[in-house]
Design goal:
Blueprint (H helix, E strand, L loop, with lengths): L14 E4 L4 E4 L4 H7 L12 E4 L4 E2 L23 H14 L6 H9 L18 E4 L2 E3 L2 H11 L8 E5 L5 H10 L4 E6 L2 H12 L4 H6 L2 E5 L12 E6 L8 H5 L1 E12 L3 E8 L5 E9 L7 H5 L3
Parallel strand pairs: 7-8, 7-10, 8-9, 10-11
Antiparallel strand pairs: 1-2, 1-3, 3-4, 5-6, 11-12, 12-13
Helix pairs in contact: 2-3
């Protein structure tokens, strides 16, 4: 990403990563790129000891970081009280740091308690990806917020949304809440056990009624092929990195629709794909990221 002086959601903060042997200061335009990658230090190098915001908040890297984006900042210290109040505190924290910029995204993320969608509710409000089994992860809260922001105009009431690699069902539930009434949210996940558990998660959440009335559904299938039954989609989100944008997903994107998808292998970019009214496609890069691969079920279970 290039360096620009104008503020943007991906250019809001300076970060200084330091260790005993080296330090690296990043310009504002690289801040979210850094946090979304968390791979600046090779595995054989000493990890940075801390992350500091220019606003003097200090946070420690998550030693269990696997993939799926970044440690933007730890929100654990904002979380006390009931589950929903901790969830609200997480959302308010993301608002303060400028990740959530719209009332609609904040409202939906407040209504869907993240603790219902992570294993045993542990660490639900910490801004870090975590393992959900089967070599899959749930993304960090700030990445979910970013994707909801990028897709907000395509998640209006009555629209159709597809969540590829739906995992625990969290973002699918958020989609369902945004496109109701009369809209449709579809999750596609190729691990049947995750499909079953995601349905159970959604049934405990504020989106439960959407499952009952059929406007939200989760299916066991290869997400690279999309879900043609309810196409075309106004919004498509892909929660794993593809080596290239699958043509099936482009085909299922509605004219005027938008897809957000990480693309790449070792080095990945979060791509925003817009289909124009004449069917032509424009693509731009939002930021650098690190996700698990979008691959076959067998390759995923083998560890890629």
């Amino acid at each position: 990403m290039n360096t620009t002086p104008s503020p943007s959601p991906s250019a809001r903060y300076n970060f200084l990563f330091s260790s005993s042997s080296a330090s690296r200061a990043l310009p504002p335009s690289r801040a979210l790129s850094l946090t979304a990658t968390a791979t600046l230090f090779p595995s054989h190098s000493s990890p940075p000891s801390s992350v500091s915001l220019t606003t003097s908040f200090s946070f420690f890297q998550n030693p269990n970081f696997i993939t799926g984006n970044s440690l933007f900042h730890s929100m654990q210290r904002f979380c006390s009280g009931s589950s929903m109040s901790r969830n609200k505190a997480m959302v308010e924290s993301l608002q303060r740091y400028g990740v959530i910029r719209s009332n609609k995204v904040a409202e939906v993320m407040e209504s869907i308690d993240r603790a219902l969608f992570v294993p045993n509710g542990a660490g639900a409000y910490i801004d870090s990806p975590m393992s959900i089994g089967y070599n899959a992860t749930i993304s960090a809260p700030h990445m979910h917020a970013m994707c909801l922001q990028l897709l907000e105009k395509n998640l209006q009431p009555g629209m159709h949304a597809l969540d590829v690699g739906s995992g625990t069902g969290y973002l699918t539930a958020c989609f369902g809440m945004m496109v109701r009434p009369e809209g449709r949210a579809v999750g596609v996940e190729h691990i049947p056990e995750l499909v079953s558990s995601s349905i159970e998660n959604i049934q405990k959440s504020a989106a439960a009624q959407l499952l009952k009335d059929g406007s939200l559904s989760v299916h066991a299938a290869d997400g690279r092929k999309g879900w043609p039954e309810f196409a075309p989609y106004d919004a498509i989100h892909v929660g794993a990195a593809a080596p290239e944008i699958p043509q099936a997903l482009i085909d299922q994107l509605k004219p005027g629709g938008r897809m957000v998808i990480p693309v790449g292998n070792m080095f990945q970019d979060l791509k925003v794909v817009d289909k124009k009214s004449d069917g032509s496609i424009s693509v731009h890069t939002e930021t650098s990221v690190r996700y698990v691969p979008l691959t076959s079920r067998e390759a995923q279970l083998r560890g890629y």
